[in-house]
Design goal:
Serine Threonine Protein Phosphatase 5, Tetratricopeptide repeat
Length: 445
C-alpha cells in the first residue's frame, strides 16, 4: 500500500476498471485464466523495473498454467500486481487482481500467514481500516516475530486514530527489522507528534536504507521534501524533488512536487505544466485536485470546473463501488469532502466529512476536515468540539495550526488562536492562498 501515512499524497483516480475471473476450472481440468499485466504507457514503460516486472509475471503465469493452485506462485503474482498498482496508480484493477490470487490461497489454507498479510495490506489501501486491522491482528497471532505485520498494524492504528498503539507497534517493528519500511513509519509518527526534526532524521535514514531510483526510495524522498516544505525550506525541498527526478526520471510525484514549489512562488503556468506532466504519467487524485485550484488561480475557470467535475465523478464512482462491495473500490469520503469543500459545495462536504469522522472518530485528519467544514458553514461552536482531537498529538502541521487558530478566534479565544495562526504562518507562509489570506486578515485585525 502506498503509505496511508501521507494523506496528501494518497489515492488513485480516473482508472480503467476491468472485469475478469481469476480462476475458471472447466470439466475438472486445470485450465485457468489469469489477470493480465497491463501494458504500461509513456514514461512508465521506460522505468527501469518494467522489464523485470514483465519477466516475473511471465514466469509466474507459466508456472500457474501447470500448477494453478500453487500457493507460493499465486502470492508472488499478487505481489507483482500490488507493486504495479503502486507504480501505475491503477489500484482498482490491480487490487482486485491481487485479491483474487490471495483469496484463492486463503480458501484452501485460512492460516496462510503471507496471504493474510497481503490481504490486510490490500484492505488498508482500500481505506477499509477496521477490516485491515482485524486481519493484521490475526496475522500477528500467527507470527509475532515478523516485522511486516507490525507495519500494517502501525498503518491501521494511525488511520483509526489509536496513536499510542501505533507507537507500540513501531517499537516492535524497528526492534525486529530496522529498514526503509520501519524508518518511514517512525518518521510519520514523529511528525504526527510534533517532532519535525526527528521526523526528518528518520526519513533520511529510510532514504539511505535502499537503492536510489527504486520507487520506494524516491517515495521516501517525497516525504522528506514534504517535511522541508512544512518547515519553510522550499529551496531545499526543490533540490530533493530534482534529485528524485535524476534518480528516477519522470517520477510523477517529484514532478508534482516541483509543481507545488512553482505554486508557492505564484508561478501558476509553470505549476500547471508540472502537474500536467505528472498526470500524463499517472492518474493520481492529488494531481487533479491541485489542477482544480491552479486553473482557477491562472484565470482558467472553465478548465477548473471541468477538472473538478471529472475528479468528483471518478472519486464518487469509486466510493460507491467501495460502499456496495465488501472487497472492491475504496472508501473515499474524506477525499470527497475535500473536493466538495474546494468547489464550495458545503452541504455535500459536510455529509462526507461526517461519514469519514464517524468511521474513525479519533483520527486527527478526519476531525480536522469535519471541523473545518463546520467552520466554513458558520457553525463555529460545533467546529470547536473537535479541537481537542485535532490537537491531541501536538502536531505542528502548519495548516492544522492555522485552522485550529481560526476556529479558536471565532469562538472568542482570540489570544490563543492568534498565537496558533502566527505559528502556522511563520512555518509555512506560502500555504494555500485562501487559507493564508484569511490567516493574514485575522493577524492584521
Amino acid at each position: 500500500m502506498k503509505p496511508t501515512l501521507r494523506n496528501a499524497l494518497y489515492g488513485a483516480l480516473i482508472l480503467c476498471c476491468a472485469a475478469f475471473a481469476a480462476f475458471i476450472f472447466l470439466n475438472g481440468k486445470g485450465k485457468s485464466t489469469l489477470p493480465e499485466l497491463k501494458e504500461r504507457q509513456g514514461a512508465l514503460a521506460e522505468a527501469p523495473e518494467w522489464a523485470t516486472t514483465q519477466a516475473n509475471y511471465n514466469k509466474l503465469t507459466a508456472e500457474l498454467k501447470t500448477k494453478p493452485t500453487e500457493a507460493k506462485a499465486l502470492l508472488q503474482l499478487a505481489k507483482v500486481f500490488m507493486q504495479e498498482a503502486r507504480v501505475t496508480g491503477d489500484y482498482t484493477y490491480y487490487n482486485q487482481a491481487a485479491l483474487d490470487m490471495i483469496n484463492s490461497v486463503l480458501a484452501k489454507d485460512a492460516q496462510n500467514f503471507d496471504a493474510t498479510c497481503l490481504k490486510a495490506m490490500v484492505l488498508l489501501s482500500q481505506h477499509r481500516f477496521a477490516d485491515g486491522k482485524a486481519l493484521a491482528m490475526q496475522g500477528m497471532q500467527m507470527n509475532p516475530y515478523n516485522s511486516f505485520i507490525y507495519g500494517l498494524l502501525i498503518d491501521a492504528n494511525v488511520e483509526l486514530g489509536d496513536y499510542p498503539e501505533a507507537i507500540k507497534m513501531a517499537d516492535k517493528m524497528v526492534s525486529i527489522r530496522p529498514d526503509i519500511r520501519s524508518y518511514s513509519r517512525v518518521s510519520y509518527l514523529r511528525e504526527i507528534h510534533g517532532d519535525v526534526p526527528g521526523s526528518l532524521e528518520a526519513i533520511k535514514m529510510a532514504v539511505s536504507a535502499g537503492f536510489p531510483g527504486n520507487e520506494d526510495i524516491e517515495w521516501a524522498r517525497m516525504v522528506q521534501a514534504h517535511l522541508l516544505e512544512d518547515s519553510g525550506k522550499i529551496d531545499e525541498a526543490e533540490q530533493v524533488y530534482k534529485l528524485a527526478l535524476t534518480e528516477r526520471p519522470n517520477y510523477p510525484f517529484a514532478l508534482a512536487g516541483l509543481g507545488k514549489i512553482a505554486r508557492y512562488r505564484k508561478d501558476y503556468p509553470g505549476a500547471i505544466a508540472y502537474y500536467e506532466q505528472a498526470k500524463a504519467v499517472m492518474s493520481d487524485a492529488s494531481f487533479f485536485e491541485e489542477l482544480i485550484d491552479l486553473y482557477r488561480l491562472n484565470n482558467q475557470p472553465d478548465q477548473s470546473a471541468t477538472c473538478a467535475k471529472a475528479t468528483i465523478d471518478a472519486v464518487s464512482a469509486d466510493n460507491t463501488e467501495g460502499a456496495k462491495k465488501q472487497e472492491g473500490g475504496h472508501f473515499a469520503e474524506r477525499q470527497l469532502a475535500f473536493l466538495y469543500l474546494k468547489t464550495n459545495q458545503l452541504d455535500k462536504a459536510l455529509e462526507f466529512a461526517q461519514i469519514d469522522q464517524q468511521r474513525r472518530p479519533k483520527n486527527i485528519d478526519a476531525c480536522e476536515m469535519l471541523a473545518w467544514v463546520l467552520y466554513k458553514k458558520g457553525d463555529v461552536a460545533q467546529a470547536a468540539t473537535f479541537l481537542p482531537t485535532m490537537r491531541g498529538t501536538n502536531s505542528q502541521n502548519p495548516e492544522l495550526l492555522v485552522k485550529s487558530g481560526l476556529i479558536m478566534v471565532a469562538n472568542g479565544q482570540k489570544e490563543q488562536g492568534a498565537a496558533l495562526i502566527q505559528k502556522g504562518m511563520s512555518l509555512k507562509p506560502y500555504m494555500e492562498e485562501s487559507l493564508a489570506a484569511e490567516a493574514k486578515m485575522h493577524l492584521k485585525a
